[in-house]
Design brief:
single chain, alpha+beta, Heat Shock Protein 90, Ribosomal Protein S5, domain 2, Four Helix Bundle (Hemerythrin (Met), subunit A), 3 domains, six-stranded mixed beta sheet, 20 helices
Length: about 650
């Protein structure tokens, strides 16, 4: 028995216990090695037709012996190859083949020479029987992964390699027997090796056609071989793409849109991406994991590679396949280098360009996408201190009060006069915003107002500052209020201010029509920002409130002659009315003040006799007047 070198023993321990995260990937590694062996023989057959064959990979199981065999009819290995490639860990036969041929074959997968040893995560013993191209003798390499390995002559009729994995016994929560099951093997092939270019076959047990209990075994191809994303666009239809999406991303609904791209240059890659019909149930939670499936020459490396899409496009699903990838030794994670950054930047530009195209040519589809994922796109415009605001601002849609539909900032600005502001209003829903008192003045003056219904909307406006020279302005902003003449009403406003105290400043406004008052904010913190910050726990952030008063409203005019009690109650009711209109909770004293005013109104009506009551009173007291009465009457008349 030959021992692994000391360094190799340490590396083997790392491979088995540290490098790989999921032990199921051992099958991916063995199939990838088999694919490389087939690639090498196919390359050699280009100059030697006798080496051409029906290339393929076969999986075989023996439940009694607890063995899983991966066979190929590739280039094979002789005694020296077994010694060099399997006796020295991290010696890559694929890498050596590239150097021998004097070229870089990007389709060869193996780079590090450690994938084979991942089989020891599930195996108590691994046997390799191989016969090399051009030779008649076969050899066997055998090891338990601890004490070393043995190489001896063997028998193999055909060129190629068998890797026989004897599985560890089950126990301590480990179920190694699952790798003998047809379902598990089919699932793993589909997950990791579905797009290996050679057929992966396995004898599959099936019921006989006669309907009896007998079973028959049929050699079945487990992988699809040709990736959908590598087909020409002319060969693909929407139905095939929809079915591919639903099958691979476990969604019973067809996607809203698909995006494909193929890039050749400094970095080569192919991508097929999809916009789902709606967000997944966990999309807006911290548990959601974004990312595209990453393949290297048809072999899945990562199921969700978050680095390929920015967070604001995390709803996009899809696949990226590239030969130009700096993988780590396990092929499960990435080395972060310029190539990965280049692919990510290219995909981001492609997605945004596709959205812009839809916005111009298929508005209905884009609005569906924005309705479902607009919050994420808005977040992208605000995130990282607005780093992406300029490339995203023209993709944002907001409901127009005048047009009653979604429009862009550009479409809004095209209707404005020079230096006119972009007006907006904030609220939880479009319905609530439409009932804001301030909208009445804007509508009467023919001004449009955009509805900001998401918490991030006003932050975006603050970050953009202006659109094409038109500054953003909140209609509930009391900082630049155009004050109407308050002549003759100074004492009334002062009286309202004294009654209101420090709750808010008082100012006259010409924005209102049918409403007596409204609430605005002065300074950098708007009413909407105050609510957002308080919801996030920032209770110290307060807006400087302004109660704007419509001096022409009858309610305000009637306050001139009110007693102090009625006046104070009216101010309380009006202030709370303004709070309600802005979506705030009312104060505890609101109902008390309201009931007192209503009671006072009823009492006033009851103290004034009606015509019928006066008539009844007159009849009830009618009697013949006395002399004294007459005298009093005459005196009164005088």
């Amino acid at each position: 028995m030959k021992e692994f070198k000391a360094q190799s023993k340490k590396l083997l321990d790392l491979v088995v216990n540290s490098i790989y995260v999921n032990r199921e990937i051992f099958l991916r590694e063995l199939i990838s090695n088999a694919s490389d062996a087939l690639d090498k023989r196919r390359f050699m057959s280009l100059t030697d037709s006798s080496l051409d064959a029906d290339f393929g990979i076969e999986l075989k199981t023996d439940k009694a012996a607890r063995t899983l065999t991966v066979s190929d009819n590739g280039v094979g290995m002789n005694e020296k190859d077994l010694e060099d490639n399997l006796g020295v860990i991290a010696a890559s036969g694929t890498e050596a083949f590239k150097k021998e041929q004097g070229k870089t074959d990007e389709q060869l997968i193996g780079q590090f020479g450690v994938g084979f040893y991942s089989s020891f995560m599930v195996a108590e013993k691994v046997t390799v029987i191989s016969r090399k191209v051009g030779e008649t003798k076969a050899y066997k390499w055998e090891s338990n992964g601890v004490d070393g390995y043995e190489i001896s002559p063997a028998d193999r009729a055909e060129i190629g390699t068998d890797i026989i994995v004897k599985l560890k016994p089950d126990g301590d929560g480990d179920n190694y027997s699952e790798y003998l099951g047809d379902y598990t093997l089919k699932t793993l092939v589909k997950k990791y090796s579905d797009y290996i270019r050679y057929p992966i076959r396995m004898l599959e047990e099936k019921k006989a056609d006669n309907g009896g209990d007998a079973s028959v075994y049929e050699l079945t191809v487990l992988n699809s071989m040709t990736p959908v994303w590598k087909k020409k666009k002319s060969e693909l239809g929407e139905t095939e793409l929809d079915e591919f999406y639903k099958h691979n991303f476990r969604d019973y609904r067809a996607p809203l849109h698909n995006i494909s791209t193929r890039v050749e240059g400094a970095v080569d890659y192919t991508a097929l991406m999809f916009v789902p019909s709606e967000p997944s149930y966990d999309y807006y939670t911290k548990d959601y994991k974004r990312g595209l499936s990453l393949y290297c020459n048809g072999v899945m490396v990562m199921e969700k590679c978050a680095e390929l899409v920015p967070e604001y496009l995390g709803f996009v699903r899809g696949i990226v396949d590239t030969p130009d990838l700096a993988l780590n030794i396990s092929r499960e994670t990435l080395q972060h280098d310029r190539r990965l950054v280049a692919i990510a930047n290219g995909l981001e530009k492609k997605i945004l360009a596709e959205f812009d195209k839809l916005l111009k040519n298929d508005r209905e589809k884009y609005e569906k996408i924005f309705t479902q994922f607009g919050k994420a796109i808005k977040f992208g415009a605000y995130d990282n201190f607005g780093a992406n605001k300029d490339k995203l601002k023209d993709l944002l849609l907001y409901r127009s009060d005048a047009d009653k539909k979604l429009i862009t900032f550009k479409e809004y600005a095209e209707k404005l006069d020079k230096d006119a502001p972009v007006l907006y209003a904030c609220g939880e829903t479009a319905e609530k915003i439409s009932m804001l008192p301030q909208l009445e003045g804007a509508r009467e003056s023919g001004k449009d107002v955009l509805y900001f219904t998401d918490p991030v909307d006003e932050f975006i406006a603050r970050m953009l500052e202006n659109y094409d020279g038109h500054k953003f302005e909140n209609i509930a902003d009391g900082t630049k209020e155009s004050k109407p003449s308050a002549e003759g009403h100074e004492k009334l406003l002062e009286r309202i201010q004294n009654s209101l105290g420090k709750k808010a400043k008082v100012a006259a406004t010409d924005k209102l029509k049918s409403y007596p008052v409204c609430l605005a904010a002065k300074g950098d913190v708007s009413l909407e920002m105050e609510r957002i910050m308080q919801a996030m726990g920032g209770n110290g952030v307060k807006a400087e409130r302004v109660l704007q008063v419509n001096l022409e409203h009858p309610v305000i005019a009637n306050m001139e002659t009110m007693t102090d009690d009625a006046f104070n109650d009216t101010v309380t009711v009006l202030y709370n009315e303004a709070l309600i209109a802005e979506g705030y909770k009312t104060e505890p004293e609101f109902l008390t003040a309201l009931n007192k005013l209503l009671s006072g109104a009823r009492s006033a009506k009851q103290t004034k006799p009606t015509a019928t009551a006066a008539k009844k009173s007159c009849h009830a007291t009618s009697k013949k007047p006395t002399a004294t009465d007459k005298t009093k009457s005459n005196g009164d008349e005088k």
